[in-house]
Recover the amino acids of this structure.
């Protein structure tokens, strides 16, 4: 059994959970238990949190059994979910670990599972979540110490887990974030994608993709862009929901003289609009000030786009510096600007893209595949 978010929820963990169930179901019966849809409106009153994609990843469309029972703030639903799951006892309960708000529900389900003799496996997207909930480390410890086994995506997160629990668990597997495979391997031609987005055919194009929060360093990238444009007429496309005040970034663009150089797509990007954004870009830039790992790196690599990122958390494990991308210190706009200029001066794009194709072929059945994730779960049961 798997408990976690899926459609109508959107975002990386919901996508990851649904794709994991798709691949597990090819070898095993899978029962997915998810959150009640009305939780969306209660927890995110100011936002429409439903996935707006024309053909979103729906568990029913994958032939999966999915029961929408959980409310992270209602203990009665945890009990209902537990009874639903163990009406036909599973061999294992797989729990994606994300927001701190899930900790009480996951703790309850993990305790119930262990009392029933069911193995509990946590897939840690972030050992310590990025949310601002008070006591998030204590909440993470509360839930994660109930696990029988862990799957993590970077060695740096293994160290964080060991510090949190006071020991490094023996039943632990480290696997790279698998490629999101709901998009076609072949992107539209770059010229066609730029025409669709109203971008110049000749100017360098950088892409910042994903949720915009302060720790992701968009301000550092905009300062770096102003320095880059003293030499190159580069443009920056920012595509993703702003969980910060977008007016702050528009004002920064104006103060830096970047009004015409930064294009804001301030909304959750539907699935069908993702390939043109990556096709139009020469390189993806992720100037994070802190990070554990990044689903955007996995997405960019899967779509054949190199990444310039900061040397934080597990990002150096995902990006081989100078081979498939470039790494710089965090919160250093000068170093970031120099890396962007180097990328264009030395014409690194084609070589990085070729290396990414080779790396994708080598990892299709290796540590960066859904098959390897399924096999890791099987080995931990």
């Amino acid at each position: 059994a798997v408990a976690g978010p899926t459609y109508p929820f959107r975002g990386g963990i919901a996508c990851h959970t649904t794709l994991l169930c798709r691949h597990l179901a090819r070898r095993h019966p899978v029962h997915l238990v998810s959150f009640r849809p009305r939780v969306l409106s209660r927890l995110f009153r100011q936002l429409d949190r439903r996935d707006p994609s024309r053909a979103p990843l729906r568990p029913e469309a994958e032939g999966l059994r999915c029961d929408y029972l959980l409310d992270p703030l209602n203990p009665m639903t945890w009990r209902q979910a537990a009874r639903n799951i163990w009406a036909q006892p599973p061999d294992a309960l797989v729990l994606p670990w994300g927001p701190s708000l899930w900790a009480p529900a996951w703790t309850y389900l993990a305790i119930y599972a262990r009392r029933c003799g069911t193995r509990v496996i946590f897939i840690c997207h972030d050992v310590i979540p990025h949310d601002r909930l008070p006591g998030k480390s204590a909440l993470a410890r509360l839930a994660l110490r109930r696990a029988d086994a862990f799957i993590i995506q970077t060695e740096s997160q293994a160290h964080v887990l060991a510090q949190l629990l006071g020991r490094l668990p023996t039943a632990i597997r480290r696997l790279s974030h698998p490629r999101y495979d709901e998009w076609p391997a072949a992107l539209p031609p770059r010229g066609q994608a730029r025409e669709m987005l109203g971008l110049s055919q000749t100017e360098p194009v950088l892409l910042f993709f994903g949720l915009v929060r302060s720790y992701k360093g968009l301000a550092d990238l905009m300062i770096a862009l102003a320095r880059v444009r003293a030499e190159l007429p580069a443009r920056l496309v920012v595509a993703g929901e702003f969980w910060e005040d977008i007016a702050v970034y528009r004002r920064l663009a104006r103060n830096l003289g970047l009004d015409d150089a930064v294009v804001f797509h301030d909304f959750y990007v539907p699935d069908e609009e993702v390939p043109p954004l990556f096709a139009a870009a020469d390189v993806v830039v992720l100037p994070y000030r802190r990070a554990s790992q990044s689903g955007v790196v996995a997405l960019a690599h899967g779509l054949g786009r190199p990444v310039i990122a900061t040397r934080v958390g597990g990002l150096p494990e995902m990006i081989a510096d100078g081979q498939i991308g470039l790494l710089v210190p965090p919160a250093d706009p000068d170093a970031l600007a120099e890396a962007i200029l180097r990328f264009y001066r030395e014409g690194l794009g084609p070589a990085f893209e070729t290396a990414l194709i080779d790396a994708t072929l080598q990892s299709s059945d290796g540590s960066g595949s859904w098959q390897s994730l399924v096999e890791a779960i099987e080995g931990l049961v």
Observations:
- The CA atoms of residues 96 and 283 lie 30 Å apart.
- The first strand starts at residue 2 and ends at 3.
- The chain is about 40% helix and 15% strand.
